[in-house]
Amino acid sequence: MLETILAVKRQEVERLFLPEEQSFTNYSLKESLKNSPHLAGLIAEVKKASPSKGIIREDFNPVRIGHEYNQAGVQAISVLTDQHFFQGHRDFLTDIKKVVDVPVLRKDFIIDSMQIAESAYIGADAVLLIGEALEAEKLHELYLQAQDLGMEALVEVHSEETLEKVLKEFTPEILGVNNRNLHTFETKLSQTKRMAELAPKESLLVSESGIFTNEDLREVVGYGAEGVLVGESLMKQADIKKGVHDLMTGVNVL
Ligand SMILES: O=C(O)c1ccccc1NCC(=O)[C@H](O)[C@H](O)COP(=O)(O)O
């Protein structure tokens, strides 16, 4: 699946144009996650659909969802901007950025420096760089470019092999473990445990995908995660604020 997504991205990059420049207030993803009042910092995702689940939320208003996440006290918001596979859009990110005061992560399949420049133009505070999608040298180059443009990067890996490849090149400030295998979609929280054992102590560890309950959250925190990235389970909630509260505290509110 990842190869199919990347093939479409290569075509999109050919047609990519930058939007008009606007100015935005920047927020640090790392600082926000570190300062969470909860067991872990929450990156809450705005995700309409996915290749593994199809449509996740029918009643999808990205700005309203972003605003509700912000009101619920999340530490950061991840916005899927890929149109073809996730029914996202780069305008969703810009529109959300204008109504929130937490860092906004651009969740997409970034393979080219033009997409990093685009991310800064649309108002991203941070970008996702996927270890399974990039050579280590290229990933590092895009990471440094993001920093030069005032953004941070969440460097995501799934396998030990990919983590080793990345660490030979550099140590990311924020390291994400995707519990989902992007080729098979198999999702196991224990992936965070395996990777945490190899992760450098200097990197802030974020566990991504397949986190549905407060029990799940406690499990990955037990493995060493300081942040969690959650999409589907929150997007399934009619009441976003209650969903965030239940996930983070394990206590139901009426
Ligand atoms: O979500 C997918 O099906 C997917 C398929 C192929 C590549 C990436 C995919 N997801 C991107 C993500 O990393 C997740 O949206 C994110 O970690 C949240 O996961 P979840 O909480 O399980 O929705």
Automatic annotation (TrEMBL):
UniProt catalytic activity: 1-(2-carboxyphenylamino)-1-deoxy-D-ribulose 5-phosphate + H(+) = (1S,2R)-1-C-(indol-3-yl)glycerol 3-phosphate + CO2 + H2O
Metabolic or biological pathway, per its Swiss-Prot or TrEMBL entry: Amino-acid biosynthesis; L-tryptophan biosynthesis; L-tryptophan from chorismate: step 4/5
Top-level taxon: Bacteria
- EC annotation from Swiss-Prot or TrEMBL: 4.1.1.48
Residue ranges occupied by any Indole-3-glycerol phosphate synthase domain in the UniProt entry: 6-247
Q: Which GO terms describe its biological process?
A: L-tryptophan biosynthetic process
User: What Gene Ontology molecular-function terms does this entry list?
Assistant: indole-3-glycerol-phosphate synthase activity; phosphoribosylanthranilate isomerase activity
PROSITE patterns referenced in this protein's UniProt entry, alphabetically: IGPS (PS00614)
Top-tier EC class: lyase
Q: Does the keyword Lyase apply?
A: yes
- Cite the InterPro entries for this sequence: Aldolase_TIM, Indole-3-glycerol_P_synth, Indole-3-glycerol_P_synth_dom, Indole-3-GlycerolPSynthase_CS, RibuloseP-bd_barrel
**Keyword terms:** Amino-acid biosynthesis, Aromatic amino acid biosynthesis, Decarboxylase, Lyase, Tryptophan biosynthesis
Question: Know the name of this protein?
Answer: Indole-3-glycerol phosphate synthase
Native organism is: Halobacillus halophilus (strain ATCC 35676 / DSM 2266 / JCM 20832 / KCTC 3685 / LMG 17431 / NBRC 102448 / NCIMB 2269)
